[in-house]
Amino acid sequence: MTDHSADNPYAPPPEDTTRATSAGTVATAEAHPASDHNPVRPPIIERITRPQDADPRRANRAERAIALAFLISAAGTVAFIVSYLAVPSLNNLHDVHVSNLLLGLSLTVSLAGLAFGIIGWVKWLMPAHELVQERHELAAADADLETAAQVVMAGLEETGLARRSLLKSTLGLALGLFALPAVLLLRDLGPLPRKTLSTTQWKAGLLLLNAETGLPVRLGDLEIGSFTTVLPAKADDMNEEDLSKAPVLLIRLEPGLNKPAAGRENWAYQDHVAYSKICTHVGCPIGLYQKQSHKLLCPCHQSTFDVPRACKVVFGPAARALPQLPISVNSSGEFIATASFDQPVGPSFWERS
Amino acid sequence: MTTTRPGPGTATPAADANGAKPAPKVVKKALGEVDSRFGTAGFLKRNLNKVFPDHWSFMLGEIALYSFVILLLTGTFLTFFFRPGTNEVIYQGQYIPLRGLKMTEAFQSTLRISFDIRGGLIIRQIHHWAALLFMAAIVAHCCRIFFTGAFRKPRETNWLIGVGLISLGLLEGFAGYSLPDDLLSGTGLRIAYGIVESIPVVGSYLGSFVFGGQFPGPDFIPRLFTIHILLVPGILLALITAHMLIMWHQKHTQWPAEHRTNTNVVGAPFYPAFMAKTGGFFFATFAVTAALSALVQINPVWLYGPYNPTQVGAGSQPDFYIGWLEGSLRMMPNFETHVAGHTISWNVLIPAVVLPGVLFTAMALYPFLEAWVTRDYSAHNICDRPRNRPGRTALGVAVLTELGILLLAGGNDVLADRFEVSLYATTWIFRVAFIVAPPIAFMLTRRICLGLQHRDAHSALHGYETGRIVMLADGEFIEVESALPDEAVARMGLEYRQGPPPALEPLVDDHGVRSRRRHNPIERVRGRIGAYLYEPDAQPHTNGHANGHADGHAGELTEDSGDHELNAGE
User: Does B182 score more than 90 pLDDT?
Assistant: First the structure.
């Protein structure tokens, strides 16, 4: 204890560390004559006598209960082996579930039996006495501390580090430089991002292919109020990186509902609009279209975009509208992109203007 | 108290004199063989006799430790079959609904573990349940340490290691959750990439380096595998070892009780009682995870299907220990700034990077901040009862309230669906609660603690009401009060309550001369925070004990005349 406790009006006075004992089964170590104290063990501070300590028949009963727990555990282990061998091959989902249940329950029985037996053994049969042990003072005596400090200083003296400043600075330089290769080696963990976050595979003239079937989406394929996910190429032909940025939602709104933003008057085609499917918050694909309110809802963090009004954010943590893909229909009635996205799709990043 | 261990050299002859049986020759010879090579006798004598205090709350850390052991055992089994590859394969396995689908090797091998390897599913489920238990036990253990003040000197280092263990546990859990490359975990990784991208200046570079290019990147699953099975578990194992060795060396804290002081330990010896009990407890922890895995399905990746960047599952939820970050992402308002051709997305940066950073930094600094405001730099080995530190307890409850709100917000879609509330209303409720609830929780907890302290002080002074009504000679009826047993009073830990921090040096000295210097404003603030947070408020019952009796309870009868004196500031 330091000075603080001395200032503390609630701190115990030093002599108050033990309370006077009251009568009963409680007795302090002092109360026991030395002959009663086993020097091999820490001193007993509280002698606890349980019914089974006084009555050997009760102790034997406890022993039998513990033995039974061990037997149940052994039976559980046998059951585990049997369940493993009894279901030799997992042919269907039912087998898998039965096997899981049998293996799991038999394992539980074998573990629980061990746990019950061992803990019961300690609680019922091993002595319940409370022992006491003094804590050793962690802090060394001041003289030892002084010696240790002197050893540290003596060693430092022997290196001459204080005097030889040339060594100090050149060693610092050498060690400091040595950190660079470790960092440098991490350089090839990945390519520099360059423009990859800002570009997608979409460009003018590409067909809008249905993400599931890989077939071009034609005018009239979509019912009023429905939508589909489209890609610039067949999903199987795209790498995962492009596939993660390219998904676009093609939505057919009710006639006359779309309110195109300024400069985007010809980006839609006959009530069909196309917006990036990748949320501008942290990049989840937006999976929910609310037909009645014409809103897109990201299922991850519930950013909500108003489709007829250029997919502006109306609720949630996303800060920017979904990028729009300008579309048209070619001579054979298939949807095509008339340009690439005019801005990066997906989450914001530092280089994004 | 004469409670020293038998000193060295007293063992054999003195023991005989005292009636202790000499050990059999075989045992002594075996130990001697080891001792003559490693010098272990002194070590064994000291450490086998080590006394461990017993309390249920001390077992929370053990649950975490044993979950970790279960994770190592089951995880090793899983690595025998799991293939951390991103090559695409066509599934031809047992699970019919997914047959013919393209998926990565990682997902395919996860299905193989679940459906084709006998015992694979149970081991996979035990692994996942043990991971949840590991994090839950760590959090509960951390709360126990916090609310009992067991982080104070000399245990600050172990607290710091603990904070490291929690944050690494989060990382390890998230990495493992992401490995199967199913639709749910892939969505989680997509979010993680978005979060990395939001970091100003270096975000897109960091994302590209960590993932090996753009999301998802072919190198990422193998990298995650190395991180999950080698790097992080290795660090965890090293930190846990250090955590345990330091605990062993400094000895465990104990609750206040009779005979227990700041300078001793009372409990059961390590060998055999504690050793056997804790070994039994390992089996108990294992049994619980096995039972859960047998009866409750967890992470059925086959229902989610393989990861496909164009798809997402509705109601996607992370594991609970990530849920608070999910909630903070969901309820953050959509701020974003565009300056000089650059974008800073505060809507991602604050909830997913700044918030956990602030929380873990504050946790790491807490022991030092508390010592600074209370000016209490002494060593503490007795656990505080939470009521006896109202300020700290209230602060902890306020933080837990905040985390609880974040966790609930992470499931707001499920809540909105179950309780038929508007989704947007739940977001607003949580936004308001995030600001309002913690202060309320703080005030409420502080009041409750002070109330409990008053009750303790009252029953220590007056004893308890026996229910026996006595009529006095003048016709007055009174209820007889009986003093509490010493043991009960000792358990209240009244003498370990904290006093106010020492007052600042007065500006006017004994001669009435006013000092020219003024108190440092930081010191004044420090004193005020210390006084508000940590000063107990139970003095009315402890001050002027005798006077209080004289005027208030003149006709009081007690069965035990020896009232308990409190060590109050008199």
Answer: yes
Give the nearest partner residue to A1 out of B115, B378, B536, using CB atoms.
B378
Q: Where are the domains of chain B?
A: 56-322
The alpha carbon of residue B214 is apart from the nearest alpha carbon of chain A, in Å, by 6
The 10s digit of each residue's pLDDT in B323-342 is: 999 999 999 999 999 988 89
Q: Is the pLDDT reported for residue B69 higher than 80?
A: yes
**Would you tell me which residues 24-53 of chain A have a C-beta closer than 8 angstroms to some C-beta of chain B?**
26, 28-30, 34-35, 37-43, 45-46
Chain B residues within 8 A of A35 when measuring between CB atoms: 18-19
- Please indicate if any CB of chain B lies within 8 Å of the CB of A126: yes
DSSP, residue by residue, A111-170? HHHHHHHHHHIIIIIS--PEEEEEPPPSSPPHHHHHHHHHHHHHHHHHHTTTT-HHHHHH
Instruction: Decide: B446 and B391 in contact? Cβ < 8 Å.
Output: yes
The verdict on a CB contact (< 8 Å) between B378 and A4 is yes
- The whole-model pTM stands at 0.89
Considering only residues A66 and B94, tell me which one the structure prediction assigns the higher pLDDT: A66
Check: CATH 2.40.160.20 for B56-322?
no
**Residues 252-271 (B) with a CB less than 8 A from some CB of A:** 258-259, 261-269
- Judged by CB atoms closer than 8 Å, whether chains meet at A8 and B498 is answered as yes
The full DSSP string for B450-493 is HHHHHHHHHHHHH-EEEEEEEE-TTS-EEEEEEPPPHHHHHHTT
- Are B121 and A96 an interchain contact pair (Cβ–Cβ within 8 Å)? yes
pLDDT tens-digit readout, A234-256: 998 998 899 999 999 999 999 99
| pLDDT in the model for residue B217 | 85
